[in-house]
Amino acid sequence: MKIKELINWLESVAPPAYQESYDNSGLIVGNPEAEIKGVLTSLDATEAIVREAIERGCNVIVAHHPIVFKGLKQLTGQNYVERTIIAAIKNDVAIYAIHTNLDNVLHQGVNGKIAEKIGLKNTAILAPKRELKKLSATLPAGLAAQAQEAVRSLGLAVQADLFAGQKLEVVFHGPAQGAILNALRNTLGQAPVYDVVALENKSLEVGSGLIGTLAEPMPELEFLQHLKTVMQAGCIRHTRLLGRNVQRVAVCGGAGSFLLGQAIAQQADVFVTGDYKYHEFFDADGRTVIADIGHFESEQYTIDLIYEIISGKFSTFALHCAKTNTNPVLYL
Hints:
14 strands, Udp-n-acetylmuramoylalanyl-d-glutamate--2,6- Diaminopimelate Ligase, Chain: A, domain 1, globular, 30% helix, single chain, 12 helices, alpha/beta, 332 residues, Alpha-Beta Plaits
């Protein structure tokens, strides 16, 4: 089985078009035509993870976090990013990242996994995407099929009846516009002639964060102790307790301070996330309890999530969850 077949499945679950504009999800190192020997799922792609992949006979790493966010101007091994890329290339290990696109899906997403561990029910996207747009492009004769395939390869659903003559139309989330135009440009060999219009719509199954309810209310301190246990947190930094039971809980894996307003607006008793800065804690202002469990701690079960997504579809290659702990934060 080829790497591209695995990629197609992953991108059907978490389309690349759903990633944020700053992200770099996708195949970072490797040949999509290469045969899969084994796959290692991980939170990060580091030198240690590459070593573990090699030791376990895996030539593919599927990580949550991209090892490369910005363009590399040289590969001299001067930092851990360069060393990781060099090690992967030397040993024919492919690295694929499935990051904010996996964060942003309701079903089989990062925040859904957190909710599962905490015990939340009746979950919904905390901040649904509101950036739906429609792109219409005029295509040269004979290239409609290739253009359709190029758009589909981004994880976007394109209906055949959207193609009338030499015109392509596709509805997408705002950050995907650049990827669509690049795909069309590569297919056509020139910049496409196109129009983009904003749509008054939102997707309730795509967006940031998640909110749900506990089966039974819990006292605040009891909930925080439960949270620390199930999320294996070294510590929990939190705002002052408000003296009320917890039942409605908002979550965001990784750094989620930008969602505090939505958590408060939807009357979350507690907002669980990571990477909170000192001054940001003041923003709770007695309206909810912020519980910062740490970036790694909030997303560590993504390793299992990616394993489940892959194992539920394929059984033709060895599949392993990384044992290497890549958390750079230690607790005394």
